[in-house]
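We treat protein structure as text, and this decision shapes the records that our systems exchange. The remainder of this section carries one protein's record, kept here as part of the documentation:
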Amino acid sequence: MELANTLSQDGESGGGVLAHLERLETQMSRSHKKLEEPQSAQAVESALGTEIRQLRCLRDKLRAEVRHRQARIKASTASVAPDQTLEMSEQDILKRRQENLKAILQAYRFTGISGKLTSRGVCVCISTAFEGNLLDSYFVDLVIQKPLRIHHHSIPVFIPLEEIAAKYLQTNIQHFLFILSEYLNAYSGRKFQADRLQSDFAALLAGPLQRNSLCTVLSFTYNVELKGQSFPFGARLLYKDLTTTLPTDVSITHQGVPPLRKQQTELS
C-alpha cells in the first residue's frame, strides 16, 4: 500500500511539472512574437518612406522636363511667321474637309451617293431610282479649297443647283448632297412615271402627252369606254414641290362638265 501511494504521488508530481514546462514555453513564444512585431512594423515604415522619397524625386524631374518642353514649344511657335501659321491652319482645315467628305461618301454609298477622290478634290456621283428601278446618274466635281467650289457637273439646268450650293455648300456639305439628291430623285421619278404613262397606256391616250422639261406639269387626254361609247377626259397634273414625285394639284375636265380639281391633301 505504501509503495502504491508513493508511485501515485510521484506520477502526479511528474505530470504537474511537464504541464508547467509547456505553459512556460508557450508564454516565452508569445513574448518573442510581441517583441518581433514592432521591429517588423518599423521595417515596413522605413521601406515606405524610402519609396515616397524616390517618387517625389521622380515627380520633380518630370515637372522640370514638362516646363522645359513647354518653353521650347513656345519659342518655336513665336519664331514662325504669322502668314506661315495661317497657311498651315488652312491646309489643316482643307485636309479635314477632305477627310469628312470621304467619310460622308462612305456612309452614303448605299443611298445612291458615291464618289472618288481626285487631284482637285472629290467627284460625287448621285444615282437616282424610283420604286426599285435604277434611273439616271449625275456627277458633281468638287474642288477642295477655301471656299469650296464646283468645277464640273452634269446636273440638268432646270435643277436649282446654284441656289442649293449657295445655301449649303460652304456650311454643310452633307446637307448639300442630301438636298441635291432629293431634287434629282424627284425629277427622275416624275420623268419615269411620265414615260411609263406614255408607253404603257398609249392605247388609252388621245394624243401625245404634254410636259415641261422639269416634268412639273403634265397634261393629257384619255378615253373612257362606257356602254360602247367613248368619253374623252382631259387631265392636268401640277407638281409645285420639286422634291416630290406626287402631284400637288390635279384637275380633270370633260366637255360640258365643270372641271374636277383635287389638292394634294385630298390625294394623299
Remarks:
- The helical segments are 2-79, 82-107, 161-168, 173-200, 264-267.
- The longest helix spans residues 2-79.
